[in-house]
Amino acid sequence: MNKINKIMMAVAASVLAISAQAQVTVSDAWVRATVAQQKATGAFMQLKSAKDVRLLEVRSPVAGVAEIHKMEMADNMMKMRAVDSIDLPAGKVVELKPGAYHIMLMDLKAQVKDGDVVPVTLVVEGKDKKRETIEVKAIAKPLNQATQH
Amino acid sequence: MKRRSVLTLLGSMSLLACSRTPVAFKGIDITGATYASDFHLRGHDGKEYSLASFKGKYLLIFFGFTQCPDVCPTALSRAVHIRKLLADKAEQLQVIFITIDPERDTPELLAQYMKAFDPGFLGLYGDMKQTQEVAADFKVFYQKVPSGSSYTMDHTAITYVFDAQGKIRLALKHEQTAEQCAADLRALMAA
N- to C-terminal Cα distance for chain B? Predict the structure, then answer.
């Protein structure tokens, strides 16, 4: 009995680990390349979470400061503001894209060149307050690359 | 009877309206606007420029800053795309980027930034006072917003179109596609 319990717990633990790892899937992660003296840029990606979580924190070794920003256009005036978090509702694709949310990378330590792989760490928190870290590799795309427009 | 005459009147009014505006622009037609009559700024190439410097060219003028992650590179990429769509007419178009962040946008940075989009694009800058004056004259609003250890800028995201006579004609919205902008420019060039 004791043994079975242990096995059950082990199975349960491994299932938890799998679900935790697969909780948030990231696709099409990219960063806009910069020119040499440029100190800031944006990272963009699509996020899909299996459970309701919130994107709480972002980090990148290429930037001194990384923040979650929201771009808003009102009366042809563009505003960007740091937001505390982004809700990732279960099963819904949330896009960080030009014209909406982006990860603002500031105090860049070096130029981000076309084709560079930029590591970005995402920290999400579930309703149970448990945090999970997701490592993302974002590819740098050229500055003049045409966007959705 | 009375209703019919009202309808006829409405019909003829709309006909009149149609004949007055043969070109339906996607952008905002601001022909005849009295603002944005000129500017005096320095280019990233070190030369001085005013509207008269570009006589004979159509102009796309956008105000922004190079540390911008979203709107400015999107608007400039769109300008690259517009020039491609204009094909043989592209030579008639000069793209101008006026920085609203002269503190950080040095001539060297502007030069690199313009080149990353198109070597033909021109970055213009002034000192703080000149920047304020040109922005006010173009009805462009901007303000610094602290962000982290740095700052970002709120700003108007309109692209202005000037005709070959140096007259302001259109305000292109940020949401307009490159195709819509190119169609507006072609219509303007053909008029």
Answer: 41
Amino acid at B79: A
Query: Any idea where the domains of chain A sit in the sequence?
Result: 25-141
Distance CA B61, CA A139 (A): 30
Q: What are the tens digits of pLDDT across the range A12-41? A: 444 444 444 558 999 999 999 999 999 999
Q: CB-based burial of residue B141 (10 Å sphere; 0-12 exposed, 13-18 middle, 19+ buried)?
A: middle
- Computed on alpha carbons and rounded to an integer, the radius of gyration of chain A in Å comes to 18
pLDDT digits (tens, 9 = 90+) for B21-39: 567 899 999 999 999 999 9
On whether any CB of chain A is under 8 Å from the CB of B70, the answer is yes
CB contact under 8 A, A146 and B77: yes
Q: Which fold has domain B25-190?
A: Glutaredoxin (3.40.30)
Contacts of B122 (CB under 8 A, 6+ apart): B43, B44, B45, B49, B94, B95, B96, B97, B114
Preferred mutation among B152, B172, B175 to probe A, highest tally of A CBs within 10 A: B152
User: How many beta-carbon pairs below 8 A join chains A and B?
Assistant: 126
Determine the distance in angstroms separating the CA of A7 from the nearest CA of chain B, rounded to an integer: 49
Q: CA A7 to CA A11: how far, in whole Å?
A: 6
- Please name the member of A77, A105, A145 whose beta carbon is closest to the beta carbon of B77: A145
pLDDT tens-digit map of A4-15: 565 555 544 444
CATH fit for domain A25-141, picks 3.30.70.270, 1.10.8.60, 3.40.1280.10, 2.60.40.1890 = 2.60.40.1890
- Asked if the interface predicted TM-score (ipTM) of this complex is over 0.85, the answer is no
pTM score, two decimals?
0.85
Q: Per-residue DSSP letters for B123-174? A: EEE--HHHHHHHHHHTT--EEEEEETTEEEEEEE--EEEE-TTS-EEEEE-T
CA pair distance A77, B155, nearest whole angstrom = 5
Candidates B43, B59, B52, B40; CA nearest to B129 is B40
